[in-house]
Structures are given as C-alpha cells and as structure tokens.
Amino acid sequence: PSVHAEQGKVVASLPTGDSVEVLLFGATVLSWKSNGRENIWVSDAAKLDGSKPVRGGVPLVFPAFGPPPKDHATGKLPQHGFARNSHWEYLGSSSSESGKLSSGGDDSVKLDFGLGTAELSEEARTAWPFDFSLVYSVTLAKDGLSTMLNVQNKGEKSFEFQMLLHTYFKIDDISKVAINGLGSTTYIDKMLNATEHQQTDPSIRIHGEVDRVYKSIKQDTTSITQDGKPRLDIVREGLSDSVVWNPWIEKAKGMGDFEPKEGYKKMVCVEVGAVDGWQKLEGGESFEGGMRCTARY
Ligand code: TA6
Fold first, then answer.
1. What is the pTM of this model?
2. Can you tell me which atom of ligand 1 is nearest the CA of 80?
3. Which end of the chain, N or C, is less surrounded by CB atoms within 10 Å?
4. Which tens digit of pLDDT belongs to each residue from 258-273?
5. Name one GO molecular function term (predicted).
C-alpha cells in the first residue's frame, strides 16, 4: 500500500487501485474508491478549511447526535458534537495481509487518527469538561472500507455520549435506490415530529425528505441497492442504530454548502451509530463502535 500525509490530508491506496482520503479536520473521510468508482459523496461547496464541518464524506458524530439536549452534559455543544469540527492528529498507518499468499501486507492498510482533551478547542473543553481520548481507525481493503472509533474515559468522572458515522454514500440516482435490512424495525421519524413507527416494508424507497432513526436493529447489515442490484453493504460493529437521511429539494436548497442543489439525487446517508439513549463510560472504561462497508460492484 502507499500512504501520503500532506496538506492536512492522508491518502492511502492499494495495488488493486482501491483508495481512501481522510481530511485531518474532523478525521473526515472525503473519498473511498473501489473498482475505479467513487463511493462517497461530497458537496462541491463543502468547506475543507476547518471553518465548518464538511458537507459530505463521513463526518464523525461524537459525543452527541443531533441538537444536544439542553438539560444534558453535552447541552452546550454544537449539533452532532465536536469530533467532526476538531483538528485530529494523524497517528500513523499499518498494513496487513489477510493470510492469503501476498507480498508484504498489500491486502489492507489501516490509518489511525487521534483526538484528546488536550487537542480540543477551549470552547469545546469548557462546554464538555471531561477527560477523554478518541482513536479513529480507517481501514482500506479491496472493495472494503471500515472505520472504528475507540472512546476512552481518561478521567475519574463518568460521562455519557452518543456516536454515529454520518456517511454520505454516492449513488447514481436516488429514484433507483432501495435501502434494505431495516424491515420490522422500530424507527423515530423526524419528519413526523419524532414519533415512533414500525418499518413494515423490508425495503425503503426515497421519494422525498427522509430523516429516520432506526433503533435496536436485530441484524447487523443495512444494504443500498441501485436498480435492484446490491451496491453497498454497511455492517454495524458494536452499534445498534442506523439513520437514513436524504434532505431532498427544500433542505438541499436551505444548506449553503450543499451543491449542486440537484445533488440530493446522487447521495443517500446511511449512518450507523449508537444514538438511541446514551452510552455511559466510567473512569478508565472504553467503548468501540464502527462500520464495515463493502462495495458490491
Ligand atoms: O443525520 C440526519 C441529521 O441529523 C438531519 O436531521 C440533518 O440535520 C443532518 O443530520 C445534517 O446535519 P448537519 O448538522 O450536518 O447539517
């Protein structure tokens, strides 16, 4: 594998041509290519200079998902917390082989990124005064991208958090997309005043703004099909919830950094996380959660 760290980005590729790009700001995956195809959508107007979270890619949501509840310890943080809005440190890379006969570990490469209390902005540290350490690992393999967040409570006081990988997947045409694997699951529908509903149909189609939090999902895979063909599989690891979001026309118009405005037809967010309630870590305890994505073609 080849790894280059330059201009605030880390780019890695395999001899197979698979590649991944991670912006140190927010440890935001900006690109994941397999079979010469881009799997991640980024807005043409996305800010990449750290002035605001990236519109697109895989924004890392921690320690709160959505607008944090005012009466909670995360209440003074911005929407989706500080992780996607912080400058992370690149900790290095390691490559491995998957046991097959192959030259020096060309089958996968793992990039590690770190964020701790010391690297946090004064503002965030004041808003959320807990000692923590995050290590975010991004692993590229043939047709595969995995990201895993390790959360450590480095202090004495316990703290609660939510986490989510806010992945903007690139698809050809939203009208030809279905999202499978969420059948007979309970979801909170943000479009219906956050009321709770049962997902009866095993397949979800997107004909308008969709903003749903599927929770405590039994089986671990959420799949995106394009024209009825499996396109991307997303497996939750250590996480029990999946959010499905598409801003559609009006919301796309309302986001200054969402370009082109027709871009809602080319993306769908399937976001795996632990966002229903809070994870609690006692001093010294740690938590791991992430996703394993496979590009089916
Ligand atoms: O993941 C869905 C969601 O929570 C939507 O409600 C919408 O707010 C989206 O995230 C984008 O949030 P952002 O803060 O990135 O504009």
1. 0.97
2. 14
3. C
4. 999 999 999 999 999 9
5. carbohydrate binding
Q: Could you report the predicted ipTM of this complex, rounded to two decimals?
A: 0.99
Q: Atom of ligand 1 at shortest distance to CA of 79?
A: 14
Question: Number of structural domains, the chain?
Answer: 1
- Residue 264 Cβ < 6 Å to ligand 1: no
Residue corresponding to tokens 């046991």: 99
Residues of the chain with pLDDT under 50: 100-103
Helix (H), strand (E) at residue 279: strand 267-281
Residue tagged 């911005």 (tokens): 78
- Of 59, 71, 75, 77, whose CA–CA distance to 125 is shortest? 77
Å from CA of 250 to ligand 1 middle: 14
How high is the pLDDT of residue 96?
Answer: 82
Q: Is the CB of 78 under 6 A from ligand 1?
A: no
pLDDT at residue 101 in the model: 47
Q: What is the CATH number of the domain that holds 29?
A: 2.70.98.10
Range of the domain at 284: 2-295
